[in-house]
Design a protein that fits this description.
With 389 residues, the chain is an alpha+beta fold. Helix content is 38%, strand content 28%. The protein has helices spanning 12-23, 36-39, 50-58, 63-68, 88-92, 101-114, 163-167, 235-245, 248-253, 297-318, 322-325, 327-349, 357-372, 374-385; strands spanning 5-8, 28-31, 47-48, 70-72, 74-79, 82-87, 96-98, 119-120, 123-129, 137-142, 145-150, 153-156, 174-189, 199-202, 208-214, 217-224, 259-273, 276-277, 280-282, 288-289. The chain is globular. It starts with a strand and ends with a helix. Bound molecules: P-hydroxybenzoic acid.
Length: 389
């Protein structure tokens, strides 16, 4: 079997890249380790930047998102019993779209099924061969059979634990990592959101976030210990702890109900350099991870997809390799800025076990500066709505 681009990973970045390439007549195959249902059962963040909206429009998969998503012109930050507002629209001219990553993935699967595009599910033992030569190929096992696909390029969209990054030899790969001494416990509940906007809360008991999916579906998170298990937290204990971390008037308005999903995610900052090795290109979580505080995970994957898609298009349509040659440099320049923002916003809002009295005062001073200074708010808002590609 032969194709132009083998895409490893059927999550949102692989599917989006595939759809964009197909629209340009660039042949590709997507390999996914799990099933479609498994991929669609994963709940992820739900805030999309305008760059991702543009890509979805270009891929012709924006219809449902435009009908059912919610444009948010700002967000609230809660601190010391009160809240203040960051007005993204007034500060930057842009808003963000609240629409679940799971829904983006569902729309992409529906579009590729309608177009008859090929996805190979439940593939195992994926190996990338000769990525540093002119004729790479990918081998794998599927349903007991060994298979091979020859290609021009390989896009590694297979996440943090995938094989793509590991294929780049250690002699050329450099990794930068920071782990955080806490996790996020998240629940989804069929209750109306506590506010029209997202609320990011800094409290003495730890961080909390009030988010949403629609008028009757809310997503809430609280900072928890890394050793906590979702089973340790009853719904009642979760709601009680969330309320204690929110300003009184917000807690009073909170509507609680049974959780329909509950999970814990650790927080990590991670970047792999370079993002290209020969004919292999890394995209999204395969190359970098951000803590979820700025909702930058999917959005940063989307900017990689933008640079790679345009590089491949330039190569196939104009015979010019400039875009793919500069892919790693361009993608990383933006990745590091998203890393900085996510790290800064995390450090502003969480309680750290080793925080000194001085560190706590610094956090308060930083929050006060953000509350009262337009330039600080503008810097925050520009990053939140997404830096330009
Ligand atoms: C979410 O809705 O799941 C969500 C929103 C904003 C974040 C993280 C997660 O920063």
């Amino acid at each position: 079997m032969r194709t132009q681009v083998v895409i490893i990973g059927g999550g949102p970045s692989g599917l989006l890249l595939s759809q964009l390439l197909l629209r340009r007549g660039i042949d590709n195959v997507v390999l996914e380790r799990k099933t479609r249902d498994y991929v669609l059962s994963r709940i992820r963040a739900g805030v999309l930047e305008r760059g991702l909206l543009e890509l979805m429009r270009e891929a012709w998969v924006a219809g449902r998102m435009e009908r059912e998503g919610f444009a948010h012109d700002g967000a609230l930050i809660a601190h010391e019993g009160g809240t203040f507002h960051i007005d993204f629209k007034a500060l930057t001219g842009h808003s963000v779209m609240v629409y679940g990553q799971t829904e983006v993935t569902r729309d992409l699967y529906d579009a590729r099924e309608a177009a008859g595009a090929e996805t190979l599910f439940e593939v195992e033992q994926v190996e990338i061969h000769d990525a540093d030569g002119d004729a790479p190929y990918v081998s794998f096992r599927q349903h007991g059979e060994t298979r091979r696909i020859d290609c021009d390029f390989v896009a590694g969209c297979d996440g943090f634990h995938g094989v793509s990054r590991q294929t780049i030899p250690l002699s050329v790969r450099r990794e930068y990592e920071k782990t955080y001494p806490f996790g996020w416990l998240g629940i989804l509940s069929e209750t109306p959101p506590v506010d029209d906007e997202l609320i990011y809360a800094n409290s003495a008991r730890g961080f909390a976030l009030c988010s949403m999916r629609n008028a009757n579906l809310s997503r809430y998170y609280i900072q928890c210990a890394l050793s906590d298990k979702p089973e340790d937290w009853t719904d009642a204990a979760f709601w009680q702890e969330l309320k204690r971390r929110l300003p009184g008037e917000v807690a009073e308005r909170l509507v609680t109900g049974p959780s329909i999903e509950k999970s814990i995610a650790p927080l990590r900052s991670f970047v792999c350099e370079p993002m290209r090795w020969g004919r292999l290109f890394l995209c999204g979580d395969a190359a970098h991870i951000v803590p979820p505080t700025g909702a930058k995970g999917l959005n940063t994957a989307a900017s990689d997809v933008h640079y790679l898609y345009n590089g491949l298009r330039q190569f196939y349509e104009e015979g010019d390799s400039e875009g793919i040659d500069r892919y790693s440099e361009r993608a990383l320049a933006r990745v590091w800025k998203a890393e900085r923002f996510s790290w800064w916003f995390s450090s502003l809002l969480h309680r750290y076990p080793d925080q000194s009295a001085f560190d706590l005062r610094m956090q308060t001073a930083e929050l006060e500066f953000l509350r009262t200074n337009r330039a600080a708010q503008q810097a925050m808002a520009e990053n939140y709505v997404g830096l330009p590609y």
